[in-house]
Amino acid sequence: MPPPPLEDEASASYPPSSSSIHSTSPPGSSLLRTRRAKTIARTAAFVFSVISALCAGSITTFSLYGHILQSRLHYTQLQVNGVAIASSIAQYLPVSLLGYICDRYGTKPLSAIAAALFGVGYSLAATIYRRVDARNALDGSAPAYPGGESDRTYPLMVFSFFCIGSATCAMYLTAVATCAKNFGKGRNRGMALATPIASFGLSGMWLSQVGSRLFHETNPDGLRGDVDVFRYFIFLAILLVAVGAVGMVTLRVVDEEDLIEEAIEELEHSGLLDAGARRGGYGAIYHDGEETDDEGAALLDPAKDLEDDARWKKERVLNAETRRFLSDSTMWCFALGFLLMIGPGEAFINNLGTVIGTLYAPRASLIAAPTSPATHVSIVGVTSTVARLLTGSLTDLLAPSPQTQHVQVTPGNSSPYTRFSVSRVTFLLGSGVTLSLGLLALASGFIQNHGERFWIVSSLVGAGYGAVFSLTPIIITVIWGVENFATNWGIVAMFPALGATFWGVVYSAVYQAGAEDTPGAGAGGDLFCYGHQCYALTFWAMAASVWVACLMVLWAWKGTNGWAQRGVVI
């Protein structure tokens, strides 16, 4: 997929070296080469951002082997959810810290962190799985007893998936932040962001197919069985370490100094920075007309080199924008809505395999041949990808665009390239409704004993979940700018960890209660649940959560001192 159209800015002028003074090349050739090099760097960063995102979402294939952890390692449903919750928490809680590092120190550290954590996480998980599975095979089919091998290694398995979740966060954030900053100008910012975001959604599809088709076990009858978890984990470890290593070289922001200088001018004009203090007195930061930081004069030194001066300016600008972001009441309302939408989607994806297992009783499943988790992981991946690309492109075409890529402090003016416009918030609310319809279809019992209908649920949830995840960072860049995007997005993206954890626990509790009421479900010591009672209450509550989220977002947009009232172009 080609990158969005590039809009090269004039590069900064630097004192010519002695060799350039004596050069016989035409005066414009050096500028032309510089622009060409920047174009190549942006294109390479975009292409590898997409590749990184295509690989980063390996954790979304959890449903491919979650039920195997339950059957082969004899984990309870609560323990399986504990592993999934550890990865979900790690995908979101560290994102504000990682975003801070990304904005202030660049993308290279995040690529290194991702490579290291993916290597540790998947290698450790593979080792634990092989050891416990081999021990259980020797001991027969009896479940793990208190203090047994599964119990002793379970905390390590949780730790390994915490590492995997953190690595997922780092690799994904690096890819999206690189595109946001390199292509923040113009009307194509939505597509520039939507492409790596969509690729992240697509990663679950292709990785699940690789796992189920290339790294599978063979049943006694010669047919393809479940994924070989050990080999699949080793494959992911090697792949993701390599991707992270290459990302350290290719993922970089071009002309970041110009981005900061433009932000300085915008903030000076709005009064958030002291306009009369460039270099000699620059640095006083104002909020609501009052000085909030008086360290600037002490930090200024005429002898500072250009690199230190650029770093100092960047720190001041980003700190001012972070304060502005955190003091905006609509941001908190918007973030809470994001939490209430994404939490149910995360819980559904993590538990997709066990939900499918509840559709048929064991004997009936042999006759009815219920659908497989791999199929629906792929459906979620495809519909999520299509929704992300559609929302990115449609908002570029139909939504109004502000005439700035920086924070909208004063009422903005939209670019008059279309007479008909649809707000990005309208797209977001429609995506939330789509997500809730999928949850309702499952909660109603329409799918029970009809696994062939499950594609309706996975399609609606995948489309709604993917669109919400695409539109939220796009809205953040449009309202609060791109230079501090990783930090701002990191703050908002922390919230869904709470939602994923809460709904994962709720689902496990309802599942366990349903299993106790399922005749014969506990035969052999394993507790499995079959029937509508295993999940109905959970998904009714999830749908209600999404409706409340839509109301929260609507209030941030149309409520008192909301974006519409403040003249924010969105």
Mind explaining what this structure looks like?
It is built from 22 helices and four strands. The chain is mostly helical and 570 residues long. The strands form two sheets. Strands 1-2 form a two-stranded antiparallel ribbon. A two-stranded antiparallel ribbon has the order 3-4. The chain has helices spanning 18-21, 27-56, 62-72, 77-92, 95-105, 108-139, 149-182, 189-214, 229-250, 256-270, 296-299, 306-326, 329-350, 352-357, 362-368, 373-398, 424-443, 454-480, 485-493, 496-516, 536-558, 563-566, and strands at residues 216-218, 224-227, 285-287, 290-293. 69% of the residues lie in helices and 2% in strands. The model is unreliable at 7-23, 142-147 and 276-304 (pLDDT under 50). The longest helix has 34 residues, at 149-182. α17 runs antiparallel to α18 (454-480). It folds into two domains: 36-254 and 328-409 and 416-566, Growth Hormone, Chain: A (Up-down Bundle); 258-321, no CATH class. InterPro entries: MFS, MFS_trans_sf.
Shape: globular
User: What is the CATH topology of the largest domain?
Assistant: Growth Hormone, Chain: A
The largest sheet has its strands arranged as 1-2
Biggest sheet overview:
2 strands, antiparallel
What is the multimeric organization of the chains shown? single chain
- Rg from Cα: 26 Å
Q: How much helix, percentage-wise, in residues?
A: 55-70%
How confident overall, as mean pLDDT? Answer: 81
- What is the terminal separation in angstroms? 27 Å
GO molecular function: transmembrane transporter activity
Main location: membrane
Membrane topology: Multi-pass membrane protein
Keywords: Membrane, Transmembrane, Transmembrane helix, Transport, Vacuole
